[in-house]
Amino acid sequence: MYMMDEREGGSLELDSPFPGSISAGETVSIPFSFVVPQYLLEDSCRHPCASQAVWERHLHLPPTLDGTNEEEHEFVARGRIQYYVEMRLRCHNNPNNICAGGRVSEDFSNSKIVAARQMVTILPALPELPPLPLDAVNFGMFLQSKSVAIRKNILQRSGRLNASSTQPPAMMLDPSGRSSACSVVPLELEFFPNDVSSRPPKRLAVSAVARGTTHLCAEPSELLPELSCQNGAIGGGGSGPTTRGAGSQA
Known about the structure:
Blueprint: H1 52-58, H2 73-76, E1 83-92, E2 111-120, E3 145-151, E4 157-165, E5 187-193, E6 207-214, H3 225-228, E7 242-249
Antiparallel strand pairs: 1-2, 3-4, 4-5, 6-7
């Protein structure tokens, strides 16, 4: 996530002149459709990128980040993302403010503006990304296999236990937030004895932790953050990642 100066913009602006007069206490209904785009406009990202995939990531519509839940509190101090539908009622005293076709002119010096907005929470639906190329380079953040020594006692080893896995399918979040996301991690355990008399351990406790990482950068990243994060540094000159995790044990 690249944090820039505060900026506000509209994805849809519609001028709808209201004919006649509005009486006090009268309710006026203006139907409209609020369509959430999947990507930002192409000219939204003009940063140098190492590949087309990075540029497409920069165009992803960011989700709402307003600090309404505990997980977002630590990020709100660095950046806030809000979406809202805003209605503005302009009272024009000068008839010259109305252009041809009924559109309101850009000169609002003689206008009184009354505005109201309704906040909306957006979690964009994005396609599942391809697996990371972890086999090409050994990344410190990702371990697909690890082995530990199993001991009979302090002096003798009975063998080594190796655990290996492959990348699981992505956990796709539900935009409504009412259902849990799940994935399956295939785990293969192998025991390599030191001699024929050695036996595998009788009891094993397997624990799993699902950890999500949000990368906060001081400038746009030229590489994918999950592939360029090494020893707390992020490609593109950003700061180290801020991580929150939740896990369960079985």
